[in-house]
Specification:
Elements (H helix, E strand, L loop, with lengths): L7 H12 L4 H8 L3 H14 L13 H5 L2 H10 L5 H10 L6 H10 L20
Helix pairs in contact: 1-2, 1-3, 2-3
Length: 129
């Protein structure tokens, strides 16, 4: 069974029905949702003023590495050809431990790229005798 966020309109109609005198279970049955959902939505309405769902998904960890953005960028500026492994080691020396993947995502998220080796010469076309 997959969990999906039901519409705010449906949530508001269930809460309005309960406010109008229906029990939570009756409102749930009428609108085709579970009794547990109707109970939760009414509780959320009482606590926050809205039955809207809480934010789902998203990145919860990037703030940890982003807090060290200036340090990371300064290390990259000091050594322009630094590898992710070397950067990881230098950060670890300063007490900040991040995986290679976290560093990779950090640079991708901020649109930072750099080439590790110079471009190759253009190949010569085949000589004709």
């Amino acid at each position: 069974m997959s969990k999906k966020t039901l519409s705010l309109d449906l949530r508001e109609r269930v809460v309005a029905a309960v406010s109008g005198g229906m029990s939570r279970r009756q409102a749930a049955e009428r609108f085709g949702v579970s009794a547990a959902s109707a109970i939760r939505w009414c509780q959320r309405q009482n606590e926050t003023g809205s039955p809207a769902s809480y934010k789902r998904g998203g990145d919860r960890w990037s703030a940890r590495i982003d807090a060290h953005k200036s340090l990371i960028l300064s290390l990259v500026d000091e050594t322009c050809d630094i590898t992710l492994k070397e950067l990881q080691a230098q950060l670890a020396e300063r007490g900040h431990r991040f995986s290679i993947g976290a560093l990779w995502r950090f640079f991708a998220r901020h649109g930072i790229t750099w080439k590790k080796r110079p471009p190759m010469r253009a190949s010569r076309t085949a000589r004709t005798s």
